[in-house]
Amino acid sequence: MPENTNTPGRSRLAKLSKQHRIALAGVATLGAAALAFSAVPSDAGTTTTDAASSAKVTYSTEPIKGVKASVTDQLAGASLKTEAIQAKADAKAKAAKAKADAAAKKKAAEAAAKKKAEAARKAKKAASRSSQRVKLQPVAATTYANNLNGWINHALAIMKQKGIPGSYNGLYKNIMRESSGNPSAVNGWDVNAVNGTPSIGLLQVIQPTFNAYHVSGTSTNIYDPVANITAAANYAAARYGSIDNVNSAY
User: Domain spans of the chain?
Assistant: First the structure.
């Protein structure tokens, strides 16, 4: 029989390019080297005569350097960064608190100063009012005896304030002539009595005259000694210039 030149294996091999064949040869060589390597114990120093495995393969038992240090450095850097951020936040919070405290102290100081100023103003105003009250307060009233002497002196003090002329002697002599010093004396027999207006009191004043010449600030009772004296003195000043000029019935 003629030789079969179309053997499948050979036909495919023939069809491979030169580059493909070289690549296959390299893969085969590496595979053989791997098998030879796996068959050699880890502590053996034996070398193989195979050309593909002529280089001696060794294993290092020393730890890989730099990996742990790199991770540690990264962690340390991250920690420092976190600390820096926290420190910055703490400083900011501290500054804000200090600012708030300063504002609160300033506000409290201003409030205290305002309160103090207000208290001083009120004290000054109160002192001013007190001073005014002292200035405006009348002189304490003099106490007069409830007798002829006291009545005359009291009447003279009022007459002086009102500008009504008269002296102690002028009042006294006319009182003694008219009523003998009796504030309840009433004349029931003279012409005035006949006309229905009897003369009354220390200086024997009729009611119409008392009403017309009554001195403000005194009693409106014609029998009141001081009111009777001042009204009569006021009438005498208008008609005779002064009670001192009256030496008889007037």
Answer: 89-137, 148-245
